[in-house]
Amino acid sequence: MTITDIGGAALEVRITPSHQRLDLQAYTSILSEVRKSLEEVDRIAIPARTPRMQWAIKDMSMRQDVRILLVPKVIPNKRAISTLSVPTEGLVSGVRSLSRVAEIPAYFTDATVHRVEQIGKHVRSGDVDRVSVASMRIPTEAAVVDQATTINAARAIEPVKKSFSSVTGVLEVLEHRTGRSPRAFLRVDGSKHGVRVEAREDQSSLLREAWGERVLAEGLLKRNILGQPVSLVLDTIENAPDRGNALSPWELLGVDPDFTEGLSTEEYIRRVRRG
Known about the structure:
Layout: E1 11-17, H1 24-45, E2 54-62, E3 66-74, H2 86-98, H3 110-124, E4 128-135, E5 143-145, H4 147-156, E6 161-175, E7 183-188, E8 194-198, H5 204-210, E9 214-223, E10 229-239, H6 249-252, H7 265-274
Parallel strand pairs: 8-10
Antiparallel strand pairs: 1-3, 1-4, 2-3, 4-5, 6-7, 6-9, 7-8, 9-10
Helix pairs in contact: 1-2, 1-3, 3-4
């Protein structure tokens, strides 16, 4: 089914050049990172066997800045209309979160956060002044990739602690390319971000059997400055019962909006650790 009116499924990307002419390499690099980010958010947010969308440029203009409107090229026949806006709104929400705190956003993986950092490098290098993304469902609420966003993105995926531990969640993405060890991405209960799971060749069948299931994965776990799991070198993996109505610490942070006394999550945790 071809797209005619896609509403919130459309993403507006605005690139403000630093000079009269926009550097071609910066332009193509930014668009590539945005497209791949949309695809990654979609795979983490939507169940494993959902048909995926390809992206196309519907409109482009250049005045003071370059405006590109990205839309799904085709809607797969078995794709629910209600899910079309998930990747665009998830990406915008994640970029907005990274502008405030060094935390892996919901439906992002370390790879997606790194893509935001790569976009930001064009700002830091002076190739462009700024890059913004907005869902066309709410086009006035754009998220901006600037210096602060870039710094937070780098810090969010920097491993500061390693330990043998476990993570629980749904195994949503499998990757096994020729010449590379198999890996997967697990959507963590609570925070909903994706943790990269690195496996051995002889564990590939275990990952295939667990695809789309809720699992408990154990191994060498790397965490970021907030204690969020970033990646895990797999030792064992097994099916886990549904968590029902249990709440994680990440969910509890949203129960009382005044719990952190106006501080960001990162600032509050830093203050608690200082005593």
